[in-house]
Write a structure and sequence with these properties.
single chain; 106 residues; mainly alpha; 2 domains; rod-shaped
């Protein structure tokens, strides 16, 4: 019986030691991986912030420019006729008409 008791005790000590060592290794690896994951997350966050800072938002005037460019251009002859009608009605003087005509033809 003492031999059996000694064998059981030895087995208990070996199993307890193995469990303690295994737990310690597992905690150490978890801490190492947590540090590495935190560093990776910080690097990604920093890179994202740098990318966002590098991009400049488009000014609102430039955003409206494509909409204005989408309008069909007015016919030059139609615009000249409108200017002539305004001159005939006395709304434009001869000098104003000449300036607008030169601007339109330029």
């Amino acid at each position: 019986m003492p031999g059996l008791l000694r064998g059981v005790a030895r087995t208990a000590v070996v199993a307890g030691t193995a469990t303690a060592v295994s737990g310690r290794v597992q905690r150490r690896q978890a801490a190492k991986f947590a540090d590495r994951d935190a560093q990776t997350a910080a690097d990604r966050s920093r890179a994202y912030e740098e990318d966002m800072a590098a991009e400049e938002p488009a000014p609102r005037d430039e955003a409206a420019a494509p909409a204005a460019a989408a309008e069909p251009p007015r016919d030059m002859i139609t615009q000249l006729r409108e200017l002539a009608a305004l001159k005939e009605d006395g709304i434009l003087t001869e000098e104003e008409f000449a300036a607008q005509k030169a601007k339109l033809l330029a």
